[in-house]
Amino acid sequence: MNAVQRRGEPDASSAVPRVATPESLRVTVHYDFASTICYVAHRVMDRMSPTLARLEIELDWMPLDLTRITGYRRGEELPEPRREEARRIGAELDVAVEPPSIWHDSRPAGAAALLARRKGRDAGWRERVWTALFEERRDAPGPDEAVALARELELELGPDELGLATEELDELTLQALDAQVTGVPTFMLGRWPFGGIQTEATMTHVLERFARKARSGELA
Predict the structure, then answer these.
(1) Tens of pLDDT along 29-41?
(2) Which end of the chain lies in a sparser environment, N or C, as judged by fewer CB atoms within 10 Å?
(3) First-to-last CA distance in the chain?
């Protein structure tokens, strides 16, 4: 899990809806629901909604299966030092979190995210799954549980659809690896992967610099 390290500036908690414009820049964010640091990033970037609106940056959250990139194994117990590191990072970024004791199989939730994405409902799906995993302390949903969880959001997902989306998740994971993604979360700043989640002040600086270079053509 990528990370960082110091407490940020006071958060901007009043979320501002972002509307895509012709000038909007899209930043893909690779994530895995099993990752505690991704949950922290989800909360931090939600607080940064006003900054993203000001910079006219749209985050495009894209799930992957980190077990295909790293040495993590589904269902494997997470070492306590790794869990303590995740707690520390969450605390330093003002996100209270208790990491799970195992590395969850996130594939059904990730596949469902792809289906929800096609329906324009992925933001609600990400919020529901991360709340279930890290606040309600549920186990990661299997295929049947993912379908049932989607129904809570009035989002209909068929089991066959979920199977095909799992194959798509595998392919997207390999594409991310080809793009030099080695961990999560990873923010793709053009062709360049920026791994981890930083303080809000640092993330603002990085995104401002990216936006300036992208709009001036320096990243072409």
Answers:
(1) 999 999 999 999 9
(2) C
(3) 29
Tokens representing 80 are: 């306590």
Closest CA to 184 of 20, 10, 67: 67
For β-strands 57-63 and 186-189, DSSP reports them as unpaired
Q: 82 CB contacts (<8 Å, ≥6 apart)?
A: 1, 99
> Cα separation of 199 and 70, whole Å?
25
Q: At what angle do helices 36-47 and 200-216 cross, to 10 degrees?
A: 70
What is the spatial distance between Cα 206 and Cα 123, in angstroms, rounded to a whole number?
A: 23
60 has which bridge partners? 28
**In this predicted model, what pLDDT tens digit does every residue of 90-127 receive, in sequence order?**
999 999 999 999 999 999 999 999 999 999 999 999 99
Q: What pLDDT score does 72 carry? A: 85
Q: Give the predicted TM-score (pTM) of the model.
A: 0.88
220 pLDDT band (50/70/90 cuts)? Answer: low
User: Helix 107-118 vs helix 143-152: angle between axes, to the nearest 10 degrees?
Assistant: 40
Planar angle of CA 12, 16, 21, nearest 5 degrees:
130
Strands (E), the chain: 25-31, 57-63, 186-189, 192-195
Reduced DSSP (H G I as helix, E B as strand, rest coil) percent helix, strand, coil of the chain, to 5: 50, 10, 40
- What are 43-78's pLDDT values in tens digits? 999 999 999 999 999 999 999 999 999 988 999 999
The secondary structure of residue 79, as a DSSP letter, is: P
Say how many residues make up the chain: 220
Q: What token pair was written down for 55?
A: 């910079």
